[in-house]
Amino acid sequence: MRFAVGFCILAFSPVIFAGEPRIHRDLAYFEPKEQRRTLDVYTTTESKNQPIVFWIHGGGWQRGDKSDVAAKPWAFLDRGFVFVSANYRFVPNVTMKQIAEDLAKAIGWTHDHATEYGGDPNTIFVMGHSAGASLAALICTDGSYLKAEGLSLTVIKGCVPVDGDAFDVPMQIKTESERGSTDTIRTFGDSVASQRDLSAVTHIARGSYTPPFLILHVADPVPAARRTGCCFETDVQSQRLAKALQDAGVQAKVHAVRRKTHATLNSDLGLSGDDATKELFEFLGRVLQK
């Protein structure tokens, strides 16, 4: 058997692995071990010094699991990546800040143990869907989380938030209040200072390192009259994040994906012929070529 050579990641091919794929499940990134602070590593027996994708699942910050990855691990393994998917604790048991701290700790563990699983500790891409998208963007813009783990943001080579709606939390709360919803304020609390601190857009500044971004969102948002619950301003929030990044001189592209829902944009990511997947691997190819 053979593996896709190098980073020819613009072509979509059947999954062909060098050696054997290996899944290392429920690795503890925090002691004492608890399930909500474990991660899974997908690699192969012949992986060596490969770029790493660190995936953050969605679920409204209060549900979901690291196993909800569909075709993603195999798509990334086939193109020469190591794939890591992490659990984290949920609100209301912990605060949003503590969730971000969990994930920074998981990235720190991934960095420190990368070579054991064939990964390059200094080439990490952080990605996530829905709630995970907002967390990914926050960790990739507010360097204090990784700094607490002894890391610089420079180990993060790219960020891919997928259909997130809380890149600017005060803006999202205002939008929701206009239609009678309190979902976001219940999650993030009523302190405006805290809301701002948990917003990725707050921490973007010209002159400080921020990795390049690819921001994916559904192109067909739910009409305002039918909006309830999660994730219905992802188009507006995605544009808001992109503008903040671009205004600071950070490479950022928004890609609106047609004929997808919030759920299928995530579940189809990694499938051959999928538009968002093609855009994703083109982005990764551009970054790695640099």
Describe, in plain words, how this protein is organized in 3D.
The chain is α/β, with parallel strands linked by helices and 290 residues long. The chain is 33% helix and 20% strand. The chain has helices at residues 72-78, 96-113, 131-141, 144-147, 169-177, 183-188, 192-197, 234-247, 262-267, 275-289, and strands at residues 21-28, 38-44, 50-56, 82-86, 119-129, 156-162, 213-218, 252-257. Helix 8 (234-247) links the parallel strand 7 and strand 8. The longest helix has 18 residues, at 96-113. It is globular and about 55 Å long. The model is unreliable at 1-16 and 224-229 (pLDDT under 50).
Biggest sheet overview: 8 strands, mixed
CATH architectural name? 3-Layer(aba) Sandwich
Provide the residue-averaged pLDDT.
Answer: 91
Distance between the termini: 30 Å
Strand residues, percent: 15-25%
Q: Uncertain runs with pLDDT below 50, 5 residues or more?
A: 1-16, 224-229
DSSP strand count = 8
The string of secondary-structure elements, in order, is EEEHEHEHHEHHHEHEHH
| Strand adjacency order, main sheet | 1-2-4-3-5-6-7-8
Q: Count structural domains.
A: 1
In angstroms, what is the radius of gyration?
A: 18 Å
Gross morphology: globular
Helicity range of the residues? 25-40%
Write the layout of secondary structure elements.
Layout: E1 21-28, E2 38-44, E3 50-56, H1 72-78, E4 82-86, H2 96-113, E5 119-129, H3 131-141, H4 144-147, E6 156-162, H5 169-177, H6 183-188, H7 192-197, E7 213-218, H8 234-247, E8 252-257, H9 262-267, H10 275-289
Parallel strand pairs: 3-4, 3-5, 5-6, 6-7, 7-8
Antiparallel strand pairs: 1-2, 2-4
